[in-house]
Structure formats: C-alpha cells, structure tokens
C-alpha cells in the first residue's frame, strides 16, 4: 500500500484574532513554549510518514520559510556552546523532509487554500492536510495524523477527516457531519454541513483541522461554488465524495486545542508547560 508522502499546510490567513501580535508575525509562528505552532504540525506530519511539507503562504509569511531553513550565522554563534542543543529538533526536521511553498493570492476559504496547493501536491496520490492552529496531543505517542494514516491504509478508497464531539451551541463554528458508525470510532459520512446553526446541526461531531484527502478532491474544488461566508468550503467539496461513500470520520484519540483563539492558545501553553515540568 502506498504510504502517505505529502502534507499540505494552509498558512495564508491573517490571524486577526491575535492582532497586533500577528501584524508582522504569521499566526502559524506563534510559539507554544519554545516551538511555533507550525513546527508542531510538521512534526505530526513526519510521525505519519510524510516526507514533503507543502505550505500555502501569503504576503508577510517569510518567517515560515526562514524557520525551516538553516541559519548559518546563528549556527556559527552557538556552535560548541551550551545553547547548541536548542536547535537539535529543528535541524532534524530540516534534514528529514522537503519543504515546498506557494502563495495564495486571495483569501477565499479553506477549500480555495487547498486548491492553491495542487501545484505542490499533484493529482497522483492521497495527501494529508494539517491546520496548524488546531494543536493536538496524544499521551501514548500516536499522533492524530498517524492514527488517521492507519485508518487510510485500511480504507485507501476514502478520505478521512478527524472529528470530535462539541457542545451543541458551538456547531456554528465547525463543519459538522452525520453518518453511520461502521466500527468503533469510525463513521461513514452521509451528510456534512458547514457551520450550521445549533438547531440545524445534523450531529455534534465537528471536523477539526486534520484531513487525508483523495487527489480527486482538486477536480471537485475547481467546480465548487462559494458557500457559507462567500468562501469555497472544503466541507462542500467533501460532501460530493460523501454521497459516493468515500468519506470516513474518525474519532481520534488525544486532545485538541483551538490555538486560533486566545483562550485555546493559553490553554495549550499551560498544558504543554505542565507536561514538560
């Protein structure tokens, strides 16, 4: 079975909820302890076997490229000192995978961001998508994307989306699924709705920022009309595949922090700080 090789990171958003901090710093580079959010996401993709990290950026995002590159001056300054070990993790990442980049010229929704990444991903194989501001952790060492990759190995004909149960009054923040549980923790999706009002939500199972997508999603996205908020929604495109029985929703094992919000970012920082003590 071909393994998952490529992971796409949509990283062109403005991060307006973190202004003024994100006026000059990409929100994906905000640190939880000593690592930026995007590095956590890349490490998760590596754990699932991905070798190519395809990043969709925008204006003012050069810090992302610089972070995943060698800084010769910094390396020279700390070489042989007690601080040299601080770069061990990022050196390992740089040496373990390839980074490719393209820019999203307009902010037209997650579906459009994924479509923008087609030139980096191609149409030959399934690929992962990680939204870095959904920071996930698993105490047993099996990351969310690793768990999803194992599901995809068993069901290579299907897309896989990660879901978690959310309070009824928060369904309007997420894509929400409905379907039939075919094995423990795994649902065959029959319906998906983008940010439904609580009274119209088909369930309380919300999609979080982890996907494994079939390459045919690109053709569908090209023909997907703007939906909720005037944006091209990945939920609408996935619904086309769900109607063909090609979407599975996985109840992942672990914990997720919404680091796109200040409250979630603080919770994540406190959690990882206590874990590292």
Instruction: Determine the fraction of residues in helical runs and give it as a percent range.
Output: 25-40%
Oligomer category: single chain
Number of distinct helices: 10
CATH superfamily: Spore Coat Polysaccharide Biosynthesis Protein SpsA, Chain A
Largest sheet: 5 strands, mixed, barrel
**CATH hierarchy class name:** Alpha Beta
Structural class: alpha/beta
Largest sheet strand order: 8-11-9-10-12
Q: Categorize the overall geometry.
A: globular
CATH architecture: Alpha-Beta Complex
Average pLDDT rating:
92
* SSE order, one letter for each helix or strand: EEEHEHHHEHHEEHEEEEHHEEH
Number of domain units:
1
State which percent range the strand residues make up.
Answer: 25-35%
Using only C-alpha atoms, the radius of gyration works out to 18 Å
CATH topology heading = Spore Coat Polysaccharide Biosynthesis Protein SpsA, Chain A
Task: Describe this protein's structure.
- With 277 residues, this protein is α/β, with parallel strands linked by helices.
- The protein has a single domain, classed as Spore Coat Polysaccharide Biosynthesis Protein SpsA, Chain A.
- The chain contains 10 helices and 13 strands.
- The strands form 3 sheets. It has a 5-stranded mixed barrel. Strands 2-3 form a two-stranded antiparallel ribbon.
- The longest helix is centred in the last third of the chain and has 15 residues.
- The radius of gyration is 18 Å and the shape is globular.
- The mean pLDDT is 92.
């Amino acid at each position: 079975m071909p393994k998952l090789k490529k992971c796409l990171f949509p990283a062109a958003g403005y991060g307006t909820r973190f202004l003024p901090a994100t006026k000059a710093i990409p929100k994906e580079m905000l640190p939880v302890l000593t690592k930026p959010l995007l590095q956590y996401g890349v490490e998760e993709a590596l754990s699932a076997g991905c070798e190519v990290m395809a990043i969709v950026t925008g204006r003012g995002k050069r810090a992302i490229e610089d972070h995943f590159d060698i800084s010769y001056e910094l390396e020279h300054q700390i070489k042989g000192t007690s601080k040299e070990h601080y770069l061990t993790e990022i050196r390992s990442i740089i040496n373990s995978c390839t980074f490719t980049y393209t820019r999203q010229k307009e902010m037209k929704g997650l579906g459009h961001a994924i479509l923008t990444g087609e030139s980096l991903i191609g149409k030959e194989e399934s690929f992962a998508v990680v939204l870095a501001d959904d920071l996930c952790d698993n105490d047993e060492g099996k990351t969310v994307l690793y768990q999803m990759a194992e599901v995809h190995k068993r069901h290579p004909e299907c897309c896989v989306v990660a879901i978690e149960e959310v309070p009824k009054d928060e369904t309007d923040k997420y894509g929400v699924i409905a379907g039939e549980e075919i094995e423990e923790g795994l649902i065959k999706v029959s319906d998906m709705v983008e940010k439904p009002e609580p009274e119209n939500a088909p369930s309380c199972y919300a999609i979080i920022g982890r996907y494994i997508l079939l390459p045919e999603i690109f053709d569908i996205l090209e023909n997907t009309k703007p939906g909720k908020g005037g944006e091209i929604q990945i939920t609408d495109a996935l619904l086309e595949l769900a109607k063909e029985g090609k979407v599975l929703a996985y109840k992942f094992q672990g914990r997720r922090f919404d680091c796109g919000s200040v409250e979630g970012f603080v919770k994540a920082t406190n959690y990882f700080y206590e874990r590292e003590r």
